[in-house]
């Protein structure tokens, strides 16, 4: 899936996380098994720190459940 610079600009505007950081994190995601709860929680913590947003234990559990059970929307571009 290829993302346009416009997509990265919108993400950066909302999160203050630059394209290079996003691409670096994406590479890390590709190298890890996201069905592995430990790896997924590590990614959630990294994103939380990058964006300066707190993720409660309840929110983290919901995210993990959604990813592990393939309930993540396929068209992320429309969410941003």
Number of helices: 4
Model regions low in confidence, pLDDT < 50 over at least 5 residues: none
The sequence of SSEs as H and E is: HHHH
The tally of structural domains comes to: 1
Distance between the termini: 16 Å
Instruction: Summarize the biggest pleated sheet.
Output: none
Helix content: 55-70%
Mean pLDDT: 82
Q: Can you count the beta strands?
A: 0
Spatial shape: globular
Could you tell me the strand content as a percent range? Answer: under 5%
Overall SS class: mainly alpha
Describe the structure.
It is globular and about 30 Å long. With 80 residues, it is mainly α. The model has no long low-confidence stretch (mean pLDDT 82). It contains 4 helices and no strands. The protein has one domain (5-69).
What characteristics describe this protein?
80 residues; mainly alpha; 0% strand
Task: Summarize it.
The protein has 80 residues and is an all-alpha fold.
List the helices and strands and how they pair.
Layout (H helix, E strand, L loop, with lengths): L4 H11 L3 H13 L5 H15 L5 H12 L12
């Amino acid at each position: 899936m290829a993302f346009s610079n416009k997509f990265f600009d919108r993400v950066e505007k909302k999160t203050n996380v630059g394209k290079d950081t996003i691409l670096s994190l994406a590479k890390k995601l590709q190298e890890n098994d996201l069905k592995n709860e430990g790896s997924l929680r590590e990614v959630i913590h990294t994103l939380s720190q990058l964006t300066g947003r707190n993720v409660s234990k309840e929110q983290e559990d919901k995210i993990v459940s959604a990813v592990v059970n393939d309930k993540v929307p396929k068209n992320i571009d429309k969410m941003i």
